[in-house]
Design a protein that fits this description.
The chain is α+β, with helices and mostly antiparallel strands and about 190 residues long. The protein contains four helices and eleven strands, in the order H-H-E-H-E-E-E-E-E-E-E-H-E-E-E. The chain has a single domain (about 25-185), classed as Lipocalin. Helix content is about 25%, strand content about 40%. The longest helix has 21 residues, at about 5-25.
Length: about 190
């Protein structure tokens, strides 16, 4: 047996196993891998929804910063103008993915309404995940008098050129889109 005939089958077997392993990734794993590829980068965005309540916000610069990354959790500060209080946290759970919204005051203390969000209820796709409000968040919203938020559904979309964050419920939509084709300067550290 020559070295060439020994190497070729081994190489083919290795490539086949690698190919099969890559194809077994779930849509949620691929989604997290796409986010992880953005780690350490910041991107400019803008509000694309048109709810009247967001008129002031629409005029402010927006930046998302993929700040802390692992295979199981992504922390993405969302800066609006000079407000650095928001961080999206996407975490793998035993049931799927969870999106949380961390809100801090400028002094670093947590807001009364923080770590609310939702959990995926299906596998989604490699480019789109929905996060219907979870029970923890419903309880917090009711306690804080934010009953209108108990039907929230958040979505995150990611493609090679765009990251989109959306919150919707009956009568309300907030959607910001970020250009992934060009990085921007990293904003100040989130609060």
């Amino acid at each position: 047996m020559t070295m060439k005939s020994f190497t070729t089958p081994t190489l083919l077997a290795t490539l086949l196993m690698t190919s099969c392993a890559q194809n077994t990734s779930t849509p949620q794993e691929k989604f997290m891998q796409s986010l992880n590829a953005l780690c350490g980068k910041s991107f400019a965005g803008k509000l694309v929804s048109t709810d009247e309540v967001d008129t002031k916000t629409a005029s402010l610069p927006m930046v998302m910063e993929v700040r802390e990354c692992s295979d199981t959790q992504m922390r993405i500060p969302f800066h609006i103008g000079d407000n650095h209080s928001r961080t999206w946290i996407i975490t793998k759970t035993d049931q799927g993915l969870r999106l949380e919204h961390q809100h801090n005051h400028e002094n670093g203390h947590a807001d009364a309404v923080t770590l609310y969000g939702g959990d995926t209820t299906d596998i989604g796709t490699a480019t789109h995940q929905n996060f219907p409000v979870n029970q923890f968040s419903k309880d917090m919203f009711v306690k804080e008098g934010l009953n209108v938020s108990v039907t929230n559904i958040w979505s995150i979309e990611i493609s090679p050129t765009k990251y989109a964050y959306e919150m919707r419920r009956e009568g309300r939509q907030f959607r910001a889109e970020f250009d992934l084709t060009q990085t921007v300067a990293t904003p100040p550290k989130p609060w």
